[in-house]
Amino acid sequence: LLHFRCSLLCWRLPGSAAHQPAMKRFFQPVLKDGSPAKKRPAGAATSDCVDGPAPTAADAGGDGPPGEEPRRFVTWNANSLLLRMKSDWPAFCQFVARVDPDVICVQEVRMPAAGSKGAPKNPSELKDDTTSSREEKQTVLRALSSSPFKDYRVWWSLSDSKYAGTAVFMKKKFEPKKVSFNLDRTSSKHDADGRVIIVEFESFLLLNTYAPNNGWKEEENSFQRRRKWDKRMLEFVQQVNKPLIWCGDLNVSHDEIDVSHPDFFSDAKLNGYIPPNKEDCGQPGFTLAERQRFGNILSQ
């Protein structure tokens, strides 16, 4: 199980093009004891993509032969894809053109699913039944019809409103075996709020998730919602029968090394409120209960 939680991260399997221009490194790597990581030897190849497992025979080859599989991945919490298209799109296009990912996983798309008010929604399609939604859809389609995104196809999993939602952009030369939208892989329905996209290839699974935030208060049911999500995630990884790449906004920081001030986040309160159970105390995403459940998932 390979997992990534990051606002913007590029990840690459060995065998993809080397010596790509590097992304800016915002945080210097450190070891678990807090000491700086050793620098690479002079002349060593560098990349901000993270190397993964060795490729299999199924993903060997050149540009798009039968059986080729993606090797280079980007994951990004866009916090409103439409807003990014209106304000930051040229910069992101430059990044994509430079890094040349095979797959881009996006979280917090925050665009509503197709369907009129009161009618069943289609979470695989963008809403376009009002003047404003048609304009927004056209903005998205224009952005995706130009380089470099014209070389990608897209799968959406959208909420009923401008909330949550995920997307997967994949180069058209790749043919996944199956794309599904629910942690229950026997279900044809999309996960609530469009939080899940699963892309299956011959040699691995790619899971893109936007995990629900734990929240601060038990009585708001957010704790229960997160517990249920973690239970479903545990069941999912226990049933997976091939290597899994799990990326997205996982809304959890697993270890103390993952936060700047662990004591501060462990003791954080909202307006003085203290949850009934000690393991639920602290900053959402860094409570003991969440960290333990997440660790259990990773151990599978």
TrEMBL record:
Residues 124-137 have a biased composition (Basic and acidic residues). Residues 74-267 form the Endonuclease/exonuclease/phosphatase domain. One of its GO terms (molecular function) is phosphoric diester hydrolase activity. Probably binds two magnesium or manganese ions per subunit. Keywords: DNA damage, DNA repair, Hydrolase, Magnesium, Manganese, Metal-binding, Signal. GO terms for cellular component: nucleus. One of its GO terms (biological process) is base-excision repair. It comes from the Eukaryota. PROSITE patterns: AP_NUCLEASE_F1_4 (PS51435). InterPro entries: AP_endonuc_1, Endo/exonu/phosph_ase_sf, Endo/exonuclease/phosphatase. Residues 51-60 have a biased composition (Low complexity). Its cofactor is Mg(2+); Mn(2+). Residues 34-71, 114-137 are annotated as: Disordered. Residues 1-18 form the signal peptide. Mg(2+) binds at N77, E108, D249, N251. The record marks N251 as: Transition state stabilizer. Belongs to the DNA repair enzymes AP/ExoA family. PANTHER family: AP ENDONUCLEASE (PTHR22748), DNA-(APURINIC OR APYRIMIDINIC SITE) ENDONUCLEASE (PTHR22748:SF10). This is Endonuclease/exonuclease/phosphatase domain-containing protein.
